[in-house]
From TrEMBL:
Keywords: Cell membrane, Membrane, Transmembrane, Transmembrane helix. It comes from the Bacteria. It comes from Paenibacillus yanchengensis. The chain crosses the membrane at residues 24-46, 52-73, 80-104. This is Cytochrome C oxidase subunit IV family protein. It is found in: Cell membrane. The keyword Lipid biosynthesis does not apply. It holds the Pfam family COX4_pro. Its main location: membrane. It is a multi-pass membrane protein. Belongs to the cytochrome c oxidase bacterial subunit 4 family.
Length: 105
């Protein structure tokens, strides 16, 4: 958990500790997104294309929740990790584009 000293004038107060409240909310959101994707597929009555859109949107939201709350990328001092992740995403997108262009042309 991230700790920061909170100062109030000349008094030094106890360090700020992020409690489990945000982690519990993130866990519940992750479970709900998983249930949405599961129910969408299990129902079978929803259009196939719309099902894909719902699953991809839930997956993208799930990634942001995982990175922000569980990997603590929302905190300071994680610039190198964020740059590494963005570099990996760039390489993955570049590989997909190259593979598609190689197959189609």
């Amino acid at each position: 958990m991230s700790e920061q000293s909170v100062t109030n004038g000349n008094k030094k107060e106890r360090p700020y500790v992020e409690g489990p409240k945000k982690h519990i909310v993130a866990f519940i959101m992750s479970v709900l997104l998983t249930l949405v994707a599961f129910v969408t597929v299990a129902s079978g009555g929803i259009n196939k294309d719309f099902t894909y859109i719902i699953i991809i949107a839930a997956a993208i939201l799930q990634v942001f929740i995982q990175l922000a709350f569980w990997m603590h990328l929302k905190d300071r001092g994680h610039t190198f990790a964020i740059i590494g992740i963005l570099g990996g995403v760039f390489v993955a997108i570049l590989c997909v584009i190259m593979a598609l262009s190689w197959v189609w042309w």
